[in-house]
Amino acid sequence: MDELMAILTELRPDVEFEGNTELIDAGELDSFDIVSLVGELCDTFDIEIGAEEIVPENFNSVEAMLALVERLQED
């Protein structure tokens, strides 16, 4: 969780990530942020995030992103 929060804070220091469940839906993160975030997550956690995984449900909250990472690490 700490690594994920560090990535998010570096990417968008102006966004309050804790408790926010509408990061995509509310426009807090845009498509450019997601592209950067996907690259960072893949590098940091040694995972592959396929195009089918890049949906708002997987990036609307820190918890959703963490669940995505954990699920992909298990595969």
**Total beta strands:** 0
Structural class: mainly alpha
- The CATH superfamily bears the name ACP-like
Q: Percentage of helical residues?
A: 55-70%
Strand content: under 5%
CATH architecture: Orthogonal Bundle
Can you summarize the main beta sheet? Answer: none
Query: How many structural domains can be distinguished in the coordinates?
Result: 1
Based on Cα principal axes, name the global outline: globular
Give the count of helical stretches. 4
C-alpha end-to-end distance: 19 Å
**Overall pLDDT, averaged?**
96
Would you spell out the secondary-structure blueprint of this structure?
Elements: H1 2-11, H2 31-45, H3 56-59, H4 62-74
List key phrases describing it.
mainly alpha; 4 helices; 56% helix
Describe what is shown at a glance.
It contains four helices and no strands. The protein is mainly alpha-helical and 75 residues long.
